[in-house]
Amino acid sequence: MISFQQIRRFVVTMILTIMLTIIIAFDFGTTNSWAATLPNQIATMNRVEAMTKDIEGKAQEAIGNITGDPKDQMMGKAKQVESQARNTAEDIKDKMKLKGRTKAVIKNIEGKAQETIGKATGNRNDQVAGKAKQAESQGRNVVEDVKDAVQNIFN
Which of 93, 9, 102 is nearest to 47 (CA)? Predict the structure, then answer.
C-alpha cells in the first residue's frame, strides 16, 4: 500500500523537476549571473586585447616611420598581424558555439543514455536524472520552436 509520505515525496519530486525544467528552458536566474556571462566577458577581453595590440602596433610603426627605425616599423607591423590573428581566432570561436537545437539533441541523447544506465544498474537516481535531462531537452526544443516562429514572423 502506498503511504502518504511516498505520495508526498513523488509530488514534491515532480514539482521540483517541473520547476527545474522551466528554469533551465527559459534561462531564469542564469542570464544575469556572473558565471553565465563569464565566457562572453572572456571573449570580449580577448577582442579588447587584440584591438589594443593593433593600436600599439600602429603607433610603433608610426614612430618607426618618423624616426626611420626599421626595427620599430617591423615590430609595429608584427603586432598588427598578431592582432589580426587574435581577431580571426575569436571569429572562429564565435562560429563554433553550439546552437540551441544542437544542445537540445545532445542533452536528449545524454538523458536517454543515463536513464538506460540507471535501468541496467537499478539506480533510481540515474533514471530520474536521465528523464530530467530529456525533459530539459524537450524544453529547449520548445524554446527553439518559439524562436523560429518569432523569427519567421519578422522574415
Answer: 93
